[in-house]
Specification:
Number of strands: 10
Number of helices: 7
Oligomer: single chain
Order of helices and strands: EHEEHEHEHHEEEEHEH
Helix content: 25-40%
Strand content: 15-25%
Largest sheet: 6 strands, parallel
CATH class: Alpha Beta
Number of domains: 1
Distance between the termini: 39 Å
Bound molecules: NADP nicotinamide-adenine-dinucleotide phosphate
Amino acid sequence: MRSKTVCIVGASGKLGRYMVQQCLDRGYVVHGVCRPKSVVKLEPFKDRISIFAGATNDREVIQRAVAGCDGVLTVLVPWGRQHYATGTAQAVLDLARPDARLIFSCGWHITRDGLDKFSNLLQWQERFARWIGAATRIIDIDDQIEACQRIFNSDARWTVVRGSDLEEGESQGLPVWSRHVGDPILESNRTRRIDYALFMVAALENEDLVHEAPAIVGRQTPSARAHAA
Ligand SMILES: NC(=O)c1ccc[n+]([C@@H]2O[C@H](COP(=O)([O-])OP(=O)(O)OC[C@H]3O[C@@H](n4cnc5c(N)ncnc54)[C@H](OP(=O)(O)O)[C@@H]3O)[C@@H](O)[C@H]2O)c1
C-alpha cells in the first residue's frame, strides 16, 4: 500500500518543524514549503523530506508542493500587509486535490459563527495587535481573519485549529477542544506547541473534525482537567 503524502506549508517555523517530525514518525511522505532564507532550518530533515522553497502565497510553489498530496497542513500567519495569509489559504484551497484533508492553524481570535465569548483581555489583545499592525505594517490580523473566512466558505475538507497561547515543553498528549472560546474547559489558555502540532497532524485522519474550527487547550491544564469529564 502506498504511503500517504502530506504537505506542510510553513514547515520551517516552530509549529511546522514539530509537524514535520510527527508526520515522519507516522510514516507519511512529507513535502515542506518554506521561504528560501529558512530552508536552512529544515537541515535536520533534508534527506527525509522534499523541500519547496518559496513564499507560502506563491501559487506556483504551492501547486508543485501539494501535487498528489492526501493532506495539507498550513501554518497561517498574519505577517506583513500584503494579504499573505489570505494568499496562502486561497492557494491551498484552489490547488490542493479536491478530496485532500486541509488543516489550518490560527489563534482563538478567529470566530466561525460569532458565538465565541472573548474575555476583555483577549479583546484588548486583538485591538492592540490591530493597532500595532497598522502602525508598524509588520502584521495584519484582519488578513488572517479574511483567510479563515475564505476557508469557512469553501467546500474543501477543511479544519481550522484555533490555538490558545502557546508554550514550549514536553508533550502532554492530544489537546482537548471546544467549538467556542468562552467554554470553561478552555479557561487555562495554554497549550504546548508540540501538542498543537499533534492536534493538527491527528486531524488529518479525524473525519469528525471536517468543517470544524476547534479551539484547543492543553489536556493537562487545570481547566481541561477540571472539565474534561
Ligand atoms: N505564538 C502564539 O502564542 C500563538 C497563539 C495561538 C495561535 N498561534 C498560531 O500558531 C501558528 C504558529 O505560530 P507560532 O507563533 O508558533 O510561530 P511559528 O510556528 O514559528 O511559525 C511562524 C511562521 O511564520 C513565518 N514567518 C515569520 N516571519 C515571516 C515574514 N516576515 N513573512 C512571512 N512569513 C513569516 C515563519 O516562516 P520562516 O521559518 O520562514 O521564518 C513560520 O512559517 C500560527 O498559525 C499562529 O496564528 C500562535
